[in-house]
Queue: 3 jobs
Job 1
Amino acid sequence: SYELTQPSSVSVSPGQTARITCSGDILANKYGRWFQQKPGQAPLQVIYKDTERPSGIPERFSGSSSGTTVTLTISGAQVEDEADYYCYSAADNTVGIFGGGTKLTVL
Amino acid sequence: QVQLVQSGAEVKNVGASVRVSCKTSGYSFTRYPMHWVRQAPGHGLEWVGWINTDTGDTRSSQKVQDRVTFISDTPATTVFMELRRLRSEDTAVYYCATNAFDFWGRGTMVIVSS
């Protein structure tokens, strides 16, 4: 079975750039997505197809991909970006898998 | 606008079954498959399964595949997830989400009590 590996935590000061990586063999051939989740809320998709940003997501959120790793970059992180972030991909476009999640601290 | 309205919280005993519903509106029901995702207290997101609301085809994670059923009711524009032989580790918030993860329900808390 596939696995997606993320760092458990990332910490930056406001205005700095935060980078969160997600690694897994499946990413060599399948797209990745990124979700932001704040306490008590449903997840919110911030990146799909490795690099695409859904409507309404601030431009400071961007995604990139290289080999078996996808990266979420938050340029000029804001205090309100503090949340848990999860990567996701899907084998044969239907069987899904999430990474373990990364707690982003902005302070 | 697209809305996914989930059923209320459930408390079940170990070994029982639970059915969670996700009522949709605001789009063509059979156009978009539906995912189910769960999150145990203090833990990360876990993909549970998926149903093609047009064909009825389903996929599920290996962890639950022998205990879960997904149902699509087109006239009611509602999808259901039924989980049987509940275990304490099934305690979680269960979310439905459209195929592209654009829209999510607010979640249904399922507590499995021993």
Note: The radius of gyration of chain A is 13 Å.
Job 2
Amino acid sequence: DAGITQSPRHKVTETGTPVTLRCHQTENHRYMYWYRQDPGHGLRLIHYSYGVKDTDKGEVSDGYSVSRSKTEDFLLTLESATSSQTSVYFCAISESSGTSGSGNTQYFGPGTRLTVL
Amino acid sequence: GIQVEQSPPDLILQEGANSTLRCNFSDSVNNLQWFHQNPWGQLINLFYIPSGTKQNGRLSATTVATERYSLLYISSSQTTDSGVYFCAVDGGFKTIFGAGTRLFVKA
């Protein structure tokens, strides 16, 4: 199994508070991703990173920011959490992306269940 | 953007039965992956298969890129196959997931 951890695994917070989720990998993969999973929507890409300090928006980026200061860590921040951000958040990694090749295979972390009251 | 449709949305099988899951996508893609999410929420990559056929034990997958679909075959299903199966494609650098097929295998 790919070495991907997420912290915290569960969090309950109140509307308006800031929240930071952490993804840590030990595989030295270049690409890292944050997804959210909601009933009826499958997984949707929030942000991704293609290197240290290199990030880009995904499908549902509003209300979220990310940072990657080290290869192994990718942080997702909700500046002011809202109830609509209650979800399960998954981090994923891959060696490559965009072009063809098995290096694009994505490996997922265990997920973080976030509840915003 | 690229649309990904999976069918059927739900499937119930008796243990030992075979099944075929389908993934249609609306545009040319560089990559296609199949994932299994088990009942505990863990996502496991089953296949990286932008074209052609691959097999791994009781599971196999075929992608016909020119016709924009992929099939996942499960043979001799087991209760541990239960969960949700997702197809995901890459439109450029962004991965788009289908809504999934929820499979329940009865003992």
Note: Chain B touches chain A at residues 1, 30-31, 33, 35, 41-45, 48, 50, 86, 88, 90, 92-100 (CB under 8 Å).
Job 3
Amino acid sequence: AQSVAQPEDQVNVAEGNPLTVKCTYSVSGNPYLFWYVQYPNRGLQFLLKYITGDNLVKGSYGFEAEFNKSQTSFHLKKPSALVSDSALYFCAVSPNSGNTPLVFGKGTRLSVIA
Amino acid sequence: GAGVSQTPSNKVTEKGKYVELRCDPISGHTALYWYRQSLGQGPEFLIYFQGTGAADDSGLPNDRFFAVRPEGSVSTLKIQRTERGDSAMYLCASSYGLAGVSDTQYFGPGTRLTVL
């Protein structure tokens, strides 16, 4: 069975500094990996995904993520954090086997301090 | 273009009552998913439709939960004899449903269900 771990409940970073939100996964076969962001009382907003190819994936709002197969990780990064990036971030995985439900991590709350 | 919409945005009900939650997917999306998100947790899968049929309902917690998608578009999640433990945010997502490809799921704003 597939699973996702987000080891940090909370990440605090100063505005303008780089940010990293960590994610590791476990899945049979090759994974499809996703990052979503959730603002208060809102649904999930898609940021980026890894399917195949280049290990560095670029997404919305300046976010990027690096797929590392040997470490089974897919960490979310941004070179320069904004206060408006403060939100709840979810990593998700689905097996490379067609349309299947996503398995989500428990989320990491990012707080960017001015 | 219109995204996934869900109604109502909030639903407060009493224990033992019946509720229906509605999801209107993005036009042209054949796949539709329901997830449930409890406070402080990530979304958990409930049921997945491909067209009109439920392709996977393994996430439904018990037989009080049921969902339909009779015309392959709008879906309704139905909960009978609600319990306080059913209180959560119910999220709907849709995707193109392309065969052999895990395409992106786009989420609606959710329905927050509170069972008193």
Note: Chain B has a mean pLDDT of 93.
